[in-house]
Amino acid sequence: MSKIDLIILIAMILTALWTVMARSLLRAAIGLALTSVIVSMMMYRLNAPLAAVFELSVCAGLISVIFITTISLTQPLTWSEIADHAKRRMRRFWLLPLLVIFTAILVLVSGVNFSLPLPSPEVEGNVRNVLWNLRPFDLLGQIIILLAGAYGVVILFREIKSK
Amino acid sequence: MIYLFVLLLLIIGLYCIFATFNLMRLLIGLELMIKAVTLLLINVGYSNGHLGLAQSLVITLIVIEVVIMVVGAGIILGLHSYHKSLNTKYIKLLKG
Question: Are the beta carbons of B11 and A42 separated by less than 8 Å?
Answer without folding.
Answer: no
